[in-house]
Specification:
It comes from Limosilactobacillus fastidiosus. The chain is α+β, with helices and mostly antiparallel strands. It has helices at residues 19-26, 30-37, 51-62, 65-70, 88-95, 113-127, 198-220, 237-248, 254-267, 270-273, 280-291, 329-334, 341-350; strands at residues 3-11, 15-18, 41-44, 71-77, 103-107, 132-141, 154-164, 169-171, 176-179, 185-186, 195-196, 229-232, 299-306, 310-318, 337-338, 359-360, 374-376, 379-380. The longest helix is centred in the middle third of the chain and has 23 residues, at 198-220. The structure holds 3-hydroxy-3-methylglutaryl-coenzyme A.
């Protein structure tokens, strides 16, 4: 029985900054941001958005009434959740008006946990092939104003429906997970911004990718030529390039060049929004499917990475007609408007974060289908 991703949809905020402007404001060369890091724009998050509203907006785009009837479980993968106890999946379930007879849970392991969510969903659908599982990867990536990580911030959510006989990607059985206890990036419970050992984190990422890839090759006997493309977790687009070049080294064969071209296609959307943490690999996959040279029957490799750290390499086969089961990301990105760096800084500092005061937010201007209106008695509305 084939099990995998049946549909995918993406949501982000309706505002962004141009990173050339940010570079000038921070006294950096614009080329450092657009070429050295590989990012052009970054999503700006108004206080009226959090991972619940973003996740619900993405999920609303893909669920039909029929899907809702078959939904057994909602998994929200996030590392920027709003509560240390209650699962954000419960809020999402409420906002989407879903049946009470549904299981809801939140998963965490930095940027990796949506991949765990997909593997768990595959297990649930194996046990009940009529059922569907909604996996939502939703995050707001914050490092702080005037930090070296600032250029790699971002925000957004990818929602995926996992079913039998999927329309997008049928998952193959061999997956390789690799975990080590290390400190490349972390965010203690009291902190609203991440701490990071930036250069170290990029080296660990590459090492984990190569470890997973070698083991996958040993287990399956597959070579690079058996893949149409590889999709990577993209904290910034240059990271995908560093990982791929770590594998290709100086190879300029036809296959190596094809992999480089497909990587560029997978990076297109990340360049526009920044790091989505849990959702970045899956937005990269959507970008590949909507901008790359891929067709039904092709094998796609996926490398998922979460700091702390855990990596996983797995693969899937593209299904006929997959194009029709992806939300229109180009239109979503084109529909946003640019804000100034001053406005971005104001909004950055006005996010609710760990603030426990009673607050009424100025949410009327936010055109998103779901908005955060404020907070009272430690409860969000
Ligand atoms: P930095 O110190 O600002 O940058 O930090 P740099 O000085 O290393 O420069 C970056 C690149 O720009 C270099 O290229 C420069 O040569 C180049 P590279 O050597 O890396 O190829 N450069 C220029 N290029 C063209 N024209 C110029 C120019 N000037 C310089 N004029 C860093 C960069 C990414 C470390 C920082 O932004 C950071 O710490 N970001 C956050 C951490 C991160 O994203 N790590 C990625 C791996 S870990 C991961 O993926 C997990 C994560 O998503 C979180 C999770 O799992 O939860 C982060």
């Amino acid at each position: 029985m084939k099990i995998g991703i049946d549909k995918m949809a993406f949501a982000t905020t309706d505002e962004y900054i141009d990173l050339r402007e940010l570079a000038r404001k921070r006294g950096d060369e614009p080329d450092k941001y657009t070429i050295g890091i590989g990012q052009d724009r970054q999503a700006v998050v108004p206080a009226s958005q959090d991972i619940v509203t973003l996740g619900a907006s993405a999920a609303e785009k893909l669920l039909t009434d029929d899907d809702k009837k078959h939904l057994s479980t909602i998994i929200v993968a996030t590392e920027s959740g709003i509560d240390n106890s209650k699962a954000s999946a419960i809020y999402v379930k409420h906002l989407l008006g879903l049946d009470d007879f549904v299981r809801t849970v939140e998963l965490k392991e930095a940027c990796y946990s949506a991949t765990a969510g997909i593997q768990f969903a595959k297990g649930l659908v194996t046990m009940d092939p009529q059922s569907a599982v909604l996996v939502i990867a939703s995050d707001i990536a914050r490092y702080g104003l005037e930090t070296s990580g600032e250029v790699t911030q971002g925000a957004g959510a990818v929602a995926m429906l996992i079913t039998a006989n999927p329309h997008v990607l049928a998952l193959e059985d061999t997956t390789v997970s690799y975990t080590k206890d290390l400190m490349d990036f972390w965010r203690p419970l009291y902190a609203t911004e991440a701490h990071v050992d930036g250069k170290y984190s990029t080296n660990v990422y590459i090492e984990f990718f190569l470890q997973c890839w070698q083991r996958y090759r040993q287990l399956t006997g597959r070579q690079l030529a058996d893949f149409a493309a590889l999709a990577f977790h993209l904290p910034f687009t240059k990271m995908g390039k560093k990982a791929l070049e770590g594998l290709l080294q100086d190879d300029h064969s036809l296959i190596a060049e094809k992999m480089r071209e497909q990587l560029t296609a997978s990076q297109k959307y990340c360049r526009e929004v920044g790091n989505l943490y849990t959702g970045s690999l899956y937005l990269g996959l959507m970008s590949l499917l909507q901008n790359g040279q891929v067709k039904a029957g092709d094998r796609i490799g996926l490398f998922s990475y979460g700091s702390g750290a855990e990596g996983e390499f797995y693969s899937g086969i593209l299904q006929a007609g997959f194009e029709k089961y992806l939300s229109n990301v180009k239109a979503e990105l084109a529909d946003r408007h640019q804000v100034s760096i001053e406005e971005y800084e104001r909004q950055f500092n006005s996010q609710l974060g760990m603030n426990s005061d009673d607050i009424k937010l100025d949410w009327e201007k936010d055109p998103a289908p779901f908005v955060l209106k404020g907070q009272k008695n430690y409860k969000r509305f």
